[in-house]
Amino acid sequence: MITDFKKRNRVDNKSLLTGIVIVFFIVVFFAVPPRDKLSQLCFWGNNTKFMIAKMMGDSNATAYLFHRNNAIYLAKMYPNRKTAISEMDKSIKALPRAASESELKTLYKDRAEIKLFLGDYKGALNDFVKSDLITFNDSLKVALLFKVNGNYNQALSYCNNILNKDNSAYAGFACIADVYKSANRPDVALRVWDLALDMNKNMPRAYVDRALLKKSMGDLTGYDSDIKLAKQYSPTVDLNASIIEDTLHPKMLTLNIR
């Protein structure tokens, strides 16, 4: 009986030690960077899948997608590093010669989105232009990228593209007003918001933006008045929200894995 007890005790000790080691590695895994553990696991899976494809001789046609997907995972894992851009460079270089031109343009646009997410505004603008795939939903991004890079005329052109499609679009007015404000013409930006609210008074965000512009110009009475109007139309309006900041500093990378 005593011998059996000792054997069970040794087994229990091994199980306890194994459990401690497992818990230790789990704690370390979640404690060390990166914080996005799901992307890290997917990154490992993507690399394992590609390694198997290489062993089977099936990697050449899919190498560009491997590097593209890696770039997305790396951007989410390390938003303060440029390793994701290097992976996108490899993806474009690995694109098979037989691939269509539209596929190359898509990769340029994907790289533009990653560069924007990482704060490389000059690179993002260059890749958006290279892609030649600028949609209506991209107009605000491209306009603001032109603005950041000092080309106000091109920025206004893309802002106007928004209003040409929808003459009451809040994003279009926000775009134009921001460009003029950045060009040290707050007076013109103020007239833009006046026009926007003349066309549609039920735009609480426009009242907030006009209020903030008035405040920056020293008109505190006008600021208070517009904030009151904004809250009348929407009591829960977020005074700190900004379509401009959200566009230039996206909190999420929305590219899909392929």
Keywords:
single chain, 13 helices
Please give a structural write-up.
It contains 13 helices and no strands. The protein has helices at 2-31, 37-55, 63-77, 83-94, 101-118, 121-131, 139-148, 152-165, 170-182, 186-199, 204-216, 220-233, 243-248. It is mostly helical. Mean pLDDT is 90; it is low at 24-29. The protein is elongated. The protein starts with a helix and ends in a 10-residue tail after the last helix. Helix 7 runs antiparallel to helix 8 (152-165), helix 8 runs antiparallel to helix 9 (170-182) and helix 9 (170-182) packs antiparallel against helix 10 (186-199). Helices cover 73% and strands 0% of the residues.
State Rg: 26 Å
Strand content: under 5%
Task: Please describe the biggest sheet, giving its number of strands, its sense, and whether it closes into a barrel.
Answer: none
The SSE string, one letter per element, is HHHHHHHHHHHHH
Counted by DSSP, the helix tally is: 13
- Quickly give the structural class: mainly alpha
Helix content: over 70%
**Quantity of strands, as a count:** 0
Q: In one word, what is the shape?
A: elongated
Unreliably modeled segments? 24-29
Mean pLDDT reading:
90
- What is the straight-line distance between the termini? 61 Å
